[in-house]
Amino acid sequence: MSARPRIALIGCGRIGQIHAESLSSLRDRCEFAVVADPRADIAEQIAERLGASQWTPDAEEAITNPAIDAVIIASSTETHAAYIALAAEHGKDAFTEKPIALDIETTDRALAAVEDAGTRLQVGFQRRFDRGYHAARKDIAEGRLGSVEMIRDAMRDPQPPDPDYVARSGGLYRDMSIHNFDCVRWLMGEEPEEVFATASALVSDVIARAGDVDTSVVTLRFPSGALATIENSRRSGFGYDVRTEIFGSEGAIMVGEHRQTPVRRYDADGVHEDHQYFFLERFSEAYRREMIAFIEAVRSDQPVAVTGADGRAALLLAYAAERSLQEHRPIAIAEVLASVSTQEVPGA
Ligand SMILES: NC(=O)c1ccc[n+]([C@@H]2O[C@H](COP(=O)([O-])OP(=O)(O)OC[C@H]3O[C@@H](n4cnc5c(N)ncnc54)[C@H](O)[C@@H]3O)[C@@H](O)[C@H]2O)c1
Q1: pLDDT tens-digit readout, 2-29
Q2: Which one of 97, 179, 291 would you pick to mutate in the ligand 1 pocket, going by the greatest count of ligand atoms within 8 A of its CB?
Q3: List of E strands, the chain
Q4: Which of 74, 238, 283, 324 has the fewest CB within 10 Å, making it most exposed?
Q5: From the CA of 245, how far away is ligand 1's center (Å)?
């Protein structure tokens, strides 16, 4: 692989623009070669502002371009799987935003294409690259907490996404909680065996009309007996809220820093600090670090840190949560596994 792999960015909406900023700032490690988005005006603007060599409205042209070594897929969710497969068929490594696809069958087809081609696929679970979550995982792996007994993992967005995004998102569990599912199984270091979910639509009529939920608590039981709870809401009156508490036999870790500026002011009205309003700010460093990790894996011909199998495992937990909600009962993961395709899981 060339010392500076040539990268195509597919999709430059909210998250694509964050990845474009990272690629632009990583010129010593890669060439930001092409940006593709059907909204040609935005593709052109991003290319000009951030120094991509070319832009195109045609994602397939960018992916199949022989001059491209690797592809960053940040387009709408329903496009990921086809682009992953196309990249693999043309021998290109790929980074994809979560989720890989909205269902397991499509996910498995994309993963099979990657397996057949022997290319890399990294999934965009950026929390794993956040310095706080990374430190927590390291402490757990090195035994500093003793045995982990409980995790409480909460994530709330400032406000619901726009109606078009809601319609294409796959619902709360496949779109949003999927970050929590990945985070909890990664922190715990084992796969949950049972999931129980309860949820409401309290925040948005659009979400309620779509048959989706916006306020949810999911509990997970692990084979060791350890328990986790995941809280999600599509609304938070004070801005983005992400925090995780991990309790072990020897101690606990709290992950979560909300301040934009590490300053706390004290006066007669109380104690005040500012706040990172949105996930794009809270995880800005993690998004850059996940991009560095992917590019370094490509450059050094090493495996990626977050695999297609991780993306699939998190989606399975979303399935379990949905089924639990529908059937008002705990769902064993074995039940979900029995109901999806029995095809061998590539990379698992
Ligand atoms: N990791 C994270 O924290 C995180 C955060 C936000 C979004 N995401 C994921 O990133 C993806 C994009 O989300 P977003 O919030 O940026 O959405 P967005 O709607 O802001 O942007 C999507 C972009 O994809 C483009 N697009 C649509 N169809 C396309 C196609 N066929 N080919 C190429 N581009 C196409 C659109 O024109 C748009 O510019 C989603 O899958 C979402 O789940 C991940």
Answers
A1: 689 999 999 999 999 999 999 999 999 9
A2: 97
A3: 6-10, 31-36, 54-56, 70-73, 93-96, 121-123, 148-156, 194-200, 215-221, 227-233, 241-248, 252-255, 265-267, 270-272, 331-332
A4: 238
A5: 30
